[in-house]
Amino acid sequence: MCDSPIMKNMVTALGLTWHPEHFCCKICRKQIGEEGFHEKDGVQYCADDYFRLFGAVCAGCTEPVMESYISALGGLWHPHCFVCNVCHTPFINGSFFENDGLPLCETHYHSCRGSLCAGCDQPITGRCVTAMGKKFHPQHLNCTFCLRQLNKGTFREHDSKPYCQACYARLYG
Q1: Strand, helix or coil at 8?
Q2: What pTM did the predictor assign?
Q3: β-bridge mates for residue 13, sequence order
Q4: What is the greatest pairwise CA distance in the chain?
Q5: Domain 11-54 adopts which CATH fold?
Q6: Who contacts 132 (Cβ-Cβ below 8 Å, separation ≥6)?
Q7: Which residues lie below 8 Å from residue 64, measured CB to CB, with a gap of 6+?
Q8: Which of 69, 113, 133, 171 is least enclosed, having the fewest CB within 10 Å?
Q9: CB-CB contact of 32 with 23 (8 Å)
Q10: The CATH number of the domain covering residues in 129-172
Q11: Where in the numbering of this chain does the LIM zinc-binding domain appear (predicted)?
Q12: Which residues pair with 158 in a beta bridge?
């Protein structure tokens, strides 16, 4: 405020009267006009500075959240930022998985948890067979040569690949 008399146009705000050119954002000093202002503790701010300083920030991009948002995982997200943290794909029907506080699609959730089938690369949500340090759907643990389904404990391994007893004997005998 300048304490000079106001002869023409004036702005009345925050219980005071101002010359229009003196009613500015306290941070960037931009004159506040028809776009309006935000107030905190008796101080005026332009929208950009107010939301940057005091507004909620997006958990994805850390930019201010000023309009529509998604509330998830203890934070607010711009709709375009609430995507799988690995492949950046939007979630279908709002269905997502969480790992270490981050949103993931089903495939990347199971990948992080080590529960993707080594045979088909799809999530394992039911029964599982562990062989050669990997997990498989029971129907996807197959002989590398003849492709027949292997039963637990009835296969041989060569170069980290499973073989039925007959194919192993024929190939590596």
Answers
A1: coil
A2: 0.63
A3: 16
A4: 105
A5: Cysteine Rich Protein (2.10.110)
A6: 157, 160, 162
A7: 51, 52, 55, 56, 57, 58
A8: 133
A9: yes
A10: 2.10.110.10
A11: 1-55, 56-115, 116-173
A12: 161
Please tell me the predicted confidence (pLDDT) of residue 102. Answer: 94
Q: Which two tokens stand for residue 168?
A: 């192993």
Per-residue model confidence (pLDDT) at position 70:
94
* Per-residue pLDDT, 93: 83
Show the tokens assigned to 164.
């039925």
Question: Which is it for the CA torsion 116, 119, 121, 124, positive or negative?
Answer: negative
3-state secondary structure of 109: helix
Supply the pLDDT for residue 152: 66
Give me the amino acid identity at 24.
C
Tokens of 6: 């106001």
Kind and range of the H or E run holding 171: helix 165-172
In the predicted model, residues of the chain with pLDDT beneath 50 are none
| Residue 81 structure tokens | 């930022």
Segments making up each domain of the chain, as ranges: 11-54, 70-113, 129-172
CB 81 within 8 A of CB 61: yes
β-pair partners for 57: 64
Count other Cβ atoms within 10 Å, centred on residue 77.
Answer: 19
Q: Is 70-113 assigned to CATH 2.10.110.10?
A: yes
